[in-house]
Every structure is written in structure tokens, then in C-alpha cells.
TrEMBL record:
Function of the protein: This protein promotes the GTP-dependent binding of aminoacyl-tRNA to the A-site of ribosomes during protein biosynthesis.
Keyword terms: Cytoplasm, Elongation factor, GTP-binding, Nucleotide-binding, Phosphoprotein, Protein biosynthesis
Gene Ontology molecular function, alphabetical: GTP binding; GTPase activity; translation elongation factor activity
GO cellular component: cytoplasm
Major location (coarse): cytoplasm
Organism taxonomic ancestry: Eukaryota, Metazoa, Ecdysozoa, Arthropoda, Hexapoda
Protein name: Elongation factor 1-alpha
NCBIfam families on file: EF-1_alpha (TIGR00483), PRK12317.1 (NF008969)
InterPro entries registered for this protein in UniProt: EFTu-like_2, G_TR_CS, GTP-eEF1A_C, P-loop_NTPase, T_Tr_GTP-bd_dom, TRAFAC_GTPase_members, Transl_B-barrel_sf, Transl_elong_EF1A/Init_IF2_C
Cell compartment(s), UniProt: Cytoplasm
Domain of life: Eukaryota
Span of domain Tr-type G: 1-215
Family as reported in the entry's similarity comment: Belongs to the TRAFAC class translation factor GTPase superfamily. Classic translation factor GTPase family. EF-Tu/EF-1A subfamily.
Amino acid sequence: IYKCGGIDKRTIEKFEKEAQEMGKGSFKYAWVLDKLKAERERGITIDIALWKFETAKYYVTIIDAPGHRDFIKNMITGTSQADCAVLIVAAGTGEFEAGISKNGQTREHALLAFTLGVKQLIVGVNKMDSTEPPYSEPRFEEIKKEVSSYIKKIGYNPFAVAFVPISGWHGDNMLEASTKMPWFKGWQVERKEGKAEGKCLIEALDAILPPARPTDKALRLPLQDVYKIGGIGTVPVGRVETGILKPGTIVVFAPANITTEVKSVEMHHEALQEAVPGDNVGFNVKNVSVKELRRGYVAGDSKNNPPKGASDFTAQVIVLNHPGQISNGYTPVLDCHTAHIACKFAEIKEKVDRRTGKSTEENPKSIKSGDAAIVNLVPSKPLCVESFQEFPPLGRFAVR
């Protein structure tokens, strides 16, 4: 982001100065992304920062998915908007092992990304400057082997994943090939759409395949935020998941069932005649106050298969790492698209095989880590969910 012009020079210089003053010089790049004052003081990345930069082929928006345990909720709402995940693993002695251990975050993040439908993956093996000896080929190969084996268990095909040895701090193999790793002949990926190869991380980003965008489906746009902008009015913001949003559309917001006309649509500070799936947009609506709308509502076209709230729904649930047993009545918090809401496991109907979906046990008393089950869920207030077949982004969720 720094090098590709996503952030202006003045901002960087200001942050660098603040970082030095607070003795966090070594955090300088992370610092740039942690733009909220509160976050900067806590030294943690919170909000899903939508940062943009350009490569030779794409505009890339980074949804920073933070590496602290309590931020998985943000990751869940962030990941489900991503076309590709870049998993950064630290090559330093002991650091990699901690991340990949049974309860480490590397594992959890990779599993979540796959479960939430992010099917393309790039692995950056970072901090190659701090291996022993520095820029060690055996260490890179060891990590590549280990990560390959466990992403394969999750469902990724390791042959379709680029593994790039990098140092984000020194810039090795980020934008251009490093001279420090003459042993690295480059990454290769093989997939049904063809092969790709390159030396550095930015080339791996350019090798991402743009997913087919479902423009032919009905409109679904989960709200990430709602702003009140002086002189303009109410501006909901979110990503078009399916369908097309244009000025003049009469939208309905579920589950509140509020209907209004879209006056204008904007992206990257430019007015759009239409927004398509994948676009993060703001749109101005008539006669609706900011107070009536909230994050987690979903906008759709009132005249074409509009979204509705559900008072209960049936879903397949996979238990990742949960201490103890889960039985009927369990009420965790559910994150689905941008909604965050308490949800009761009203009835665990059956246990199923995670890979085939076939039933293995009817009406189980309880389920535990590693199990997959079909469950009837009751949200504490109506929630806009859809079938995974019809609208995948609104049909996947996580509970914690």
C-alpha cells in the first residue's frame, strides 16, 4: 500500500513521527493501517480498514483482517467480502510454530476464510530476514510443507496457492525480486484456468482470478455503515453482493421493511450509473433518517425478489474450536454478512459428515469441536439471511 500510492506521503510522515515518539518505530507500516486513535494507542488493528492501491492489473482493496483473537468477528464480516485471502505467516524461530499450533490463529484464519467462501489463497512467508540464518531456504521449505499440508486438510489445493518468501519490513519480494534469496526461483500455481508464475507478492496478487460476478441475480447489499452527510442526507454504505444498484431503484431495507428511492450511487468519490457485485459503494436515499437504518440491514430491489427478515432458519454449522459440548438452547452471537446478533440453537436436528453432507446421527444430544450439524436457529430479532445456494454471501455466517 505504502509503495503503490494508497496512502499520501504527509500521512505517512505524520505517522512515522508519532510512532518514533511513542517508541513504536518498528511498527511503522502497521501504524499506518491502524488509523483510529484508540487503536493506535492499543497497538492493535481494529476496524476493517478499506485501503486501496493499484497493481498493473487491478485496483486492490485490502480489508485488513486483524490477528488478535477477539477480532475474529471483524474478520468474519470482512472476509466474506474478499476475493482472495493473503495468509501471512511469520518465519521467525518459534513464531511460525505458535501461529500454527493447535489453537494458533493461522489455522483458525485459514479455516474461516475457506468456510466463508474465500476460495483463492496466497501465502506470504514473512520475516525471512529473521530466520536462522537470515533468508534461510530450508526454513522456507519447512514452512511451505507444513502450511501446504494443513491448508489441504481445510479444503484448499496447495498447487493453486502461491507461496512467496518475503520481508515486509525490508521489502524483499514484495514489489520486486529480492537479491537476498537467490535460491528462490519463483512461485508457480496450477489451476483449471491455467498456470501462473512470478517472483514477488504483487505478481501473485495480479494472478488472482476475478470471480464471476452474479449480476443476473436479485439485488443484495448488506449495509456496513450508515452516514449522515451534510447537504446530501442519509448515505448507507456497503458492498453489492449480487444484482445491480442504480439511481432510481426503489430499494427496500430488510428486515425493517423500509422502502425508498435511490437518488445517487458513488464509488471512489465518483458518481456511478450502476454498481455491480464487488463494488463498495455509498448511495443516497430519500426521506429515511440515519436512525432508521443500521449495519446488518440488507438493501434489495422492492420489485424483484426483495430480501426479508427471518424469525428462524435452518443451517449447517461446523464447530471449530469450542470448549465442551453444545446442546439445544445454546445462545451465542452470530455474525452473518454485516449483521451481529444473538442466536439460539433451538434444535440440533442431525450430525453430518463435513465433506459429504450425509447424515451420521439423528437428534444428537450435543455437538463438539470438529462436528458438523444441521441446526434450527432462532435470532433474538429478525435477521436477513438467505439460502447459500441462492445468495452465498448471505448464506454463510459464524457463531462465537
